[in-house]
Structure to design on (870 residues):
């Protein structure tokens, strides 16, 4: 587990304007990503306030050295895969040197401005080449809510409390925040018809998830023990697992979701490191009385003691009409990352338990992180109870599922007394009409 | 569709010894791959008889020019992704020039020997970096046989004859022929127990599939019409979708197969091109009376007229005991690639119909290609009827599922009167005990 150190000092201030107060990216955060300045090539950077620091430029200026310089060298070529592969040591060295460099009292603070780009004038890219993407299903309230729609008497299938259920997702269609999502065509069979029809999805939905970036990875045939699984985590992001419910309902038997999900996945582009999130570690919530204990290959006491995350999560929705009326996005749900039945370490231990190899830059999704009540549902399928009960927006509009022109934003914040608030940056995309 | 030309002349002979007669790789085949000579770096090559021709060396010698040289240039760096991305034009130019170069009467035949490596002294690699791997389920006899074990009255689910069902597989654990496969550990719940157990799989199985290599790919949001889908196919291979049936049975609800498949997939390392397979194109078998017509986005008359493949398929099994006794591998099944309910073009049109982007070097599996009877089943799950009826090998041993030390080889051959036989090379792997 990552420990608390001077880089978490809430009193620390940055020499970069806007990196204090209510920014997602105070000096205590320092998330890693890949950006292009207005006309430049893609390169590695770190977000601080409203700016992005060019890591290679800082290294070239002699301001990042040793292990930190090694981390920067591994991040060349427009993807962070090489840096993620190095694991915690160089990543932590980079954090420590960046913290010193960007400090309001840092000896080199006068040299920082030449290394910065205004974030608003940069493009943000996927931070790594994603080899494989796996989506889990560890949000137990989501599993229960959606299961109840099909099986009122037995919402959770018999394996749920034994197996961190997951499936392989589509890596090629993952895009960073800001890239619009086109409503997919697909096959669906409405209940009142005898045969399926092909056309634009009529039940387009979002899913609120966390993404987990894999660091060093493992060799095929060599499982990662649960006790070592945290060392495989290079960081976190927000993930919107866009879902076409009508396509999903017709296609998913017997091999699982396919085209209902593969048209697009949106992630927040900054990799928020385990170090930045150390203050927000909490014990894994106790299993309800009567639930089975995890099998030994999934059980590590240190993981149980501090393997969960306390992060506030929100879903915000704006519509064409609400934007025209100048209304702010409507908060359609508020949840928390603690609503995971399995920890990230358990997901990784399970994923590799049969010998499957994870690689640097692989991405895991947690599954939808709904809370226990209707106001904390991470998908419209749940909030609208299968499309039966619309939600009312501040604009006066109603929604059962997403309409063209809707824009969905996911937000995550770590908030804890005695620590600086940490944000993830936006995970946002606009729904375009089917072509 | 690819047409028949002089490169299919069955009378053609190669200047390379062993490239005639019963080789998998006569001059009419010319499959593409990536190999390393004994001590050399990975490079692009073409198989001919018992040899591999170094493509860059041939180009450097001035023996491949124009579009063919462009294809070779795109194949540098130890993967063929760039070549696959170029599509049919450069690939066909390369075939035509290689045919002329390797011909027994070719004007440059004396220069060929310096470009060759003995295949037995080379290592074969994956021919491309596989971004995403998708496995379909188009073998209707397999779907029926396995469905019957769970639902005797309704083996095929209602969507089967409307949707080319598929799911995302694991790309990272795909390995070329020859790499052993370690028996996975995993969770399973035997019927006589109340709770699951974790241990080595006891129901390890093979699956006989064809693999399809994707060529140019498509932009996200821009589906590939079925009429243009054949242009996305860069070639074919054999694919063994190793499956742990006990893990699969417990984990797969509701999101599909995951660890039951992701520990390993074995492919034959040569990309057999659409051009080489042109003689073996046949009409898609007529749908049985009463089956629904494909929806318009899946229906192209040219595809129906010639989109299926007539390829003999075999599964061969040797055991530690049979090898010790000097017995040849036992043929446990013989099938044919024609047993696909959906064509490859339909798979691609469906996969992209919602906007999902395919990329050069993506791999599709067809799903298990069982024939209609017990001798043509592509998995032991079918042959042994769910493990109830063992098969007897020539060694006197019995098998319900695979045992440690078993070696499985998949074989494919195109055989048609008036044409040279075409092979795929072996897709072979040995089962190692769980670690």
């Amino acid at each position: 587990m990552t420990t608390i150190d001077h880089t978490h000092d809430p009193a620390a201030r940055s020499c970069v304007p806007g990196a204090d107060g209510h920014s997602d990216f105070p000096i205590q955060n320092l998330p890693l990503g890949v950006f292009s300045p207005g006309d430049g090539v893609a390169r590695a950077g770190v977000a601080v306030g409203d700016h992005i620091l060019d890591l290679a430029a800082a290294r070239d200026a002699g301001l990042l050295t040793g292990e930190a310089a090694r981390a920067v060298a591994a991040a060349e070529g427009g993807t962070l895969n090489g840096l993620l592969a190095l694991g915690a040591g160089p990543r932590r060295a980079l954090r420590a040197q960046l913290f010193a460099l960007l400090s309001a009292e840092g000896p080199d603070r006068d040299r920082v401005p030449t290394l910065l780009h205004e974030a608003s004038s940069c493009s943000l890219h996927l931070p790594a080449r994603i080899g494989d993407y796996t989506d889990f299903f560890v949000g137990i309230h989501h599993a229960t809510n959606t299961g109840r729609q099909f099986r009122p008497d037995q919402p959770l299938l018999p394996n749920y409390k034994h197996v961190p259920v997951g499936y392989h997702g589509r890596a090629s269609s993952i895009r960073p925040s800001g890239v619009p999502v086109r409503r997919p065509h697909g096959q669906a069979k409405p209940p009142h018809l005898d045969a399926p029809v092909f056309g634009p999805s009529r039940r387009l939905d979002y899913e609120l998830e966390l993404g987990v970036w894999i660091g060093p990875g493992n060799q095929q045939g060599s499982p990662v023990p649960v006790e070592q699984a945290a060392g495989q985590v290079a960081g976190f992001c927000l993930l919107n697992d866009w879902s076409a419910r009508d396509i999903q309902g017709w296609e998913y038997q017997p091999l699982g979701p396919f085209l209902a999900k593969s048209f697009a996945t949106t992630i927040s582009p900054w990799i928020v490191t385990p170090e930045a999130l150390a203050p927000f570690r909490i014990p894994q919530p106790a299993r309800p009385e009567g639930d089975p204990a995890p099998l030994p290959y999934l059980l590590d006491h240190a993981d149980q003691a501090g393997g969960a995350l306390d992060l506030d999560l929100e879903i915000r929705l704006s519509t064409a009409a609400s934007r025209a009326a100048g209304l702010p996005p409507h908060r359609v749900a508020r949840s928390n990352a603690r609503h995971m039945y399995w920890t990230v370490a358990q997901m990784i231990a399970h994923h590799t338990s049969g010998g499957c190899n994870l690689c640097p830059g692989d991405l895991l999704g947690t599954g939808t992180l709904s809370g226990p009540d209707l106001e904390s549902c991470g998908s419209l399928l749940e909030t609208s109870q299968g499309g039966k009960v619309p939600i009312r927006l501040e604009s006066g509009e109603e929604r059962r599922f997403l309409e063209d022109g809707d824009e969905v934003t996911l937000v995550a914040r770590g908030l804890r007394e005695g620590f600086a608030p940490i944000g993830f940056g936006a995970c946002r995309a606009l729904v375009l009409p089917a072509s």
Notes: Residues 88-102 of chain B form the longest helix (15 residues).
